[in-house]
């Protein structure tokens, strides 16, 4: 198997940040025994609410999703920027709990006895627009609380954190809550709170100052209702890690403390970092590494691994897929609730068959199409390729490789002319030759940039190479993959999407009723050795 393009475990007792160079936005982490679990925002991509597992906080594996289908109205079509915002993950009373805010609906919750197993149907804890970034706290006296921030775009409220009392079963809020901190003057764009209790004090870990430019703040009070003292504990400083943002604190069995957070890297999304953490003599957290004479920590690039008392195998979230299993790999997500009519893994064993689905939205582009099968960018620089059998394409249908964000590009195979996918042309074009083409688009539509007539239908290899500046160069092989021909077009600059990083994957589109099959999809380090 090809070398993975980003491995944080350096094999010498140290690790490299980010520990996950992929768009696991707004991470939260817990320890249960010797196991660590992490979840993250998934917005409108499904399955959603990813569950990752680790034994050492450095080597992570994707093991599940808490939401296989979104049961809420509207998710049969893409909900760019909506859906699951900033979840929190907790272990309480023998169960795993996830709370999150849907900015258009309210606060939702799900539970599981086993994080790798089935999660309960989503439960609406509190309806309301703009209630986001939620986190529960079960106190020592049996009472329970929930903290949340506000989405200004829906609520008109900004910079403020609200605490509500919650029923002990975690299903209902008992009051409207109180604003426990207003960051308007000191900590603008205050959001993403995580709620903890330690040594009799209530702690709120919350970022402020903006996703790409801000800092990590900690608030402390002897009362859950405040007043809260504040202290900035982590900022960019002189490092390249901009806006070290929201995440979670976890304490090890060895007594060590660590902080997991994200960094916004534009088209690469919000990648996950791990910071060493300790507590000073006054009971305040110390994060990252402090420069001489400085009171605020800065993110570390390379550090010793956490002391978990064992050597752990090197793991990274899955990327490549041979399509030999009866189910899709967990790395894949659709743009909306999946439909079994879009694909098959059993019709031709060892292949995934994607059925052509008519394009949605204005301009004939793919931006609003729900049936794009995609995964996260996995590294700063990498290559991704697939082996395509286009035999089953019918007139006007197409399918291939796609890089997707606010802007997207695709290298694909089409049967017939570019406008042959409608009912008036499909039959006339059914026997026409294949064309390999490169196109680029956005929500307004799509334009073809290059094309090449083809004579064969099987063994077409499509490849995209992504450089460390997120520029993408496409190439193809019509033979055995021994040599690739570059597409004579300018490099495509990958773009982030709505609150998410760029994605890459596969698609099939058109109304001809055809299909395209992929033998495999492989992600590797850049073939030219670029990192």
UniProtKB/TrEMBL annotation:
Pfam families per record: GH43_C2 (PF17851), Glyco_hydro_43 (PF04616)
Residue positions of the active site: 26 (proton acceptor), 191 (proton donor)
Domain Beta-xylosidase C-terminal Concanavalin A-like: 320-523
Keywords noted in UniProt: Glycosidase, Hydrolase
Stretch forming the signal peptide: none
InterPro entries in UniProt: ConA-like_dom_sf (IPR013320), GH43_C2 (IPR041542), Glyco_hydro_43 (IPR006710), Glyco_hydro_beta-prop_sf (IPR023296), Glycosyl_Hydrlase_43 (IPR051795)
Keyword Amino-acid biosynthesis in annotation: no
Feature type site, description Important for catalytic activity, responsible for pKa modulation of the active site Glu and correct orientation of both the proton donor and substrate: 133
Listed GO biological process terms: carbohydrate metabolic process
Gene Ontology molecular functions: hydrolase activity, hydrolyzing O-glycosyl compounds
Family as reported in the entry's similarity comment: Belongs to the glycosyl hydrolase 43 family.
PANTHER family for the chain: BETA-XYLOSIDASE (PTHR42812), BETA-XYLOSIDASE-RELATED (PTHR42812:SF12)
Protein name: Glycoside hydrolase 43 family protein
């Amino acid at each position: 198997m090809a070398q993975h393009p980003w491995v944080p475990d350096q094999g010498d007792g140290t690790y490299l940040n980010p520990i996950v160079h992929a768009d696991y936005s707004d991470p939260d982490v817990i320890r249960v025994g010797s196991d660590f679990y992490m979840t993250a925002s998934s917005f409108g991509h499904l399955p959603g609410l990813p569950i990752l597992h680790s034994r050492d906080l450095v080597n992570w594996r994707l093991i599940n999703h808490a939401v296989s289908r979104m049961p809420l109205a509207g998710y049969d079509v893409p909900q760019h920027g909506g859906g699951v915002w900033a979840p929190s993950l907790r272990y309480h009373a023998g169960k795993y709990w996830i709370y999150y805010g849907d900015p258009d609906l309210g606060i939702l919750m799900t539970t599981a006895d086993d994080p790798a197993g089935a999660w309960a149907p989503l439960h609406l804890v509190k309806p309301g627009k703009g209630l986001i970034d939620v986190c529960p706290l079960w106190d020592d006296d049996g009472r329970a609380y929930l903290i949340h921030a506000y989405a200004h775009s829906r609520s008109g409220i900004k910079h403020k954190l609200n605490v509500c009392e919650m029923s002990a079963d975690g299903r209902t809020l008992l009051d409207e809550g109180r604003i426990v901190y207003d960051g308007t003057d000191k900590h603008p764009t205050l959001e993403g709170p995580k709620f903890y209790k330690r040594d009799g004090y209530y702690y709120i870990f919350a970022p402020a100052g903006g996703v790409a430019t801000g800092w990590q703040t900690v608030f402390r009070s002897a009362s859950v209702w405040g007043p809260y003292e504040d202290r900035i504990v982590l900022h960019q400083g002189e490092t390249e890690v901009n806006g070290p943002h929201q995440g979670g604190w976890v304490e090890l069995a060895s007594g060590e403390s660590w902080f997991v957070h994200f960094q916004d890297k534009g088209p690469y999304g919000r990648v996950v970092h791990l910071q060493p953490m300790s507590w000073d003599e006054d009971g305040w957290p110390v994060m990252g590494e402090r420069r001489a004479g400085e009171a605020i920590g800065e993110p570390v690039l390379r550090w010793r691994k956490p002391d978990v008392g064992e050597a752990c195998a090197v793991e990274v979230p899955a990327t490549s897929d041979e399509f030999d299993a009866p189910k899709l790999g967990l790395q894949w997500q659709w743009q909306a609730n999946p439909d079994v009519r879009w694909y098959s893994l059993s019709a031709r064993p060892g292949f995934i068959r994607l059925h052509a689905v008519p394009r949605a939205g204005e301009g004939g582009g793919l931006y609003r199409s729900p049936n794009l099968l995609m995964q996260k960018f996995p590294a700063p620089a990498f290559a991704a390729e697939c082996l395509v059998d286009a035999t089953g394409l019918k007139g006007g249908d197409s399918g291939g490789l796609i890089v997707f964000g606010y802007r997207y590009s695709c290298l694909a195979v089409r049967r017939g002319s570019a406008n042959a996918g409608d009912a008036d042309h499909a039959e006339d074009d059914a026997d026409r030759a294949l064309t390999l083409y490169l196109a680029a688009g956005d929500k307004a539509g799509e334009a073809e940039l290059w094309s090449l007539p083809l004579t064969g239908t099987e063994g077409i290899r499509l490849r995209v190479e992504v450089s460390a500046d997120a520029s993408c160069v496409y190439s193809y092989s019509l033979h055995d993959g021994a040599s690739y021909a570059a597409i004579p077009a300018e490099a495509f600059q990958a773009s982030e999407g709505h609150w998410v990083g760029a994605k890459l994957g596969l698609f099939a589109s058109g109304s001809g009723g055809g299909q395209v099959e992929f033998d495999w999809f492989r992600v590797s380090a850049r073939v030219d050795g670029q990192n």
